[in-house]
Amino acid sequence: MARKKAPEDLSVEELRRLLVEKRRGARKERLEHFRRTGRAISIAPDLDLDAPFSAPTIETAEESSSAPTPVAPRRKLLDRILLGVEVLAVVGLAAIILNGVGLLRTLNTEVVAALNPETAVPTPLVMAVVLPSGHTPPDAQGNTRPNEAEIPAHLLPMVQSLANVPIPTAAPDQAVRIQIPAINVDAPIVQGDGWEQLKKGVGQYINSAAPGQDGNLVLSGHNDVYGEIFRYLDRLAPGDQVTIFTQQRQYTYIVDHTVLVEPTAVEVMAATSSPTATLISCYPYLVNDQRIVVFARLQN
After folding, report:
1. Is residue 36 part of a domain?
2. Helices (H), 116-226
3. How many domains, the chain?
4. Which of 9, 56, 162, 280 is the most interior residue, by most CB within 10 Å?
């Protein structure tokens, strides 16, 4: 058995080898500890004792995680499906939000309408069977009477029942006078267009619109008796002015057009959505088998 040499008896080369072996032993112990704790995945091969000393290469778990890991096709497909689901979810959420905003706006509108209800205004019904102002042509002495011959026989009782319709109480917004400069008309307006009312001037059909208001202001007058107020309605042209006065103010209507109709064409008295004035009289002069109707619209 060889006797161990004392450190002072060793050569420089032997001392260097002993130092390398000691360091390698310590290094192995550290690497074994790293393996057990999972801090080292792989190590470099053991150094050759005869090779020059160099530090070992150690790959830690942190360094190994930076290397790209191949992704399986199935995982890629799953990721794409999940991305599509997320996109659809976002789009659906946006649609729900927009729909909610629209519903909220609709509810707000309904609440405002409920808190501020508009007063319903009934549309006046046209109860006339024939247009007003109908009468027989005056004789040599100027005598005339209502022309019942133009009323259908089966509707005559209805016309007679409407003869005594109550006259509305006077109000500040009722029409009281009419002026038509183009044909020199300046006459009073009375409520009602029956035989007795038209003896006094121009008659307003009961329940027709007040001057200046939305609707149809229906006015009738004779053409050849009781002042011949509407004698020259056929001379009116588009653009001529018709001024209607109330107790408080005046309204100017502009003539739009003129038509000739049969006495039964009561549709010309129907309500309108905008302020309109309708002037009616018998036609032609001293014959009176038709009606002349002039339509005018409120200025501005």
Report:
1. yes
2. 156-161
3. 2
4. 280
Q: Which CATH number do you get for residue 241? A: 2.40.260.10
Q: What is the pTM of this model?
A: 0.59
Residue pLDDT, tens place only, 92-118: 898 899 888 888 888 888 888 777 766
Is residue 250 in a domain? yes
Residue 126: its pLDDT value, please? Answer: 64
Q: Is residue 61 part of a domain?
A: yes
Q: Give percent above pLDDT 90 in the chain.
A: 47
Q: How many CB atoms lie within 10 A of CB 283?
A: 20
Structural domain includes residue 28: yes
- In whole angstroms, give the CA distance from residue 220 to residue 294: 10
pLDDT for 33-48, tens place per residue?
Answer: 777 776 665 555 554 5
- The domain containing residue 20 runs over which residues? 11-65
More confident residue, 66 or 130: 130
Residue type, 219: L
Q: What is the mean pLDDT of residues 240-267?
A: 96
Q: Give yes or no for residue 258 having a pLDDT over 80.
A: yes
- Number of Cβ atoms within 10 Å of the Cβ of 221: 26
Whether residue 298 contacts residue 274, with contact meaning beta carbons closer than 8 Å, is answered with yes
Helix (H) or strand (E) segment spanning residue 245: strand 241-245
Domain termination residue (choose one: 65, 83, 106):
65
pLDDT recorded at residue 250? 96
What is each CA distance from 234 to 74, 223, 289, in whole angstroms?
Answer: 92, 10, 15
Token pair recorded at residue 82:
């999940």
Question: What are the respective helix, strand and coil percentages of the chain, to the nearest 5?
Answer: 35, 20, 45
Distance, CA of 3 to chain centre: 112
